[in-house]
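Handout, section B. The chain below has 125 residues.
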Amino acid sequence: MRWYLRSKIHHARVTDVNLHYAGSITIDETLLDTAGFEEGELVQVWDVTNGERFETYIIPGTRDSGIMGLNGAAARRVMLDDTIIIAGFELSDFPVSPRVVLVDERNHIKQMISETNGEEVESEL
C-alpha cells in the first residue's frame, strides 16, 4: 500500500489565528464538501508564505464564510493573510484521483480539478 494525495485546497488565505483554542484548522464547510474532507480528519498544512509545514485536524467553519483559521499551537506557525495549502492523503493499493480545489483571495471556489491518469480534468461546480 502507498500514500496518495486525495484532496487539496490550493492557495487559501489565512483569515483567522486563535492561539487560545484547543487546536486544529477551521475550514469553510463548502470547501470541505467540495474537496472531500471530513470533520476531524488529519491534514497537512503547507504555508507558502513562510515555508512552514505541519499537521492538524479539521473543524468545519461556517458555510460560504471563507473562514480559514488556524487554532492553538498551529496559530504560531502562520500569520493572517498567509497563503496556505491543505492536503489530505489516502492509504491505498491503487492510485487515487485527487480533488484539487482552487480558491480566490476570499477563499471562495474558483475551480475544482481532478487528476485522472495524469491528466487534469476541470469539474463543473
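Note. The chain has one domain: 2-123. Compare this with the example in section A.
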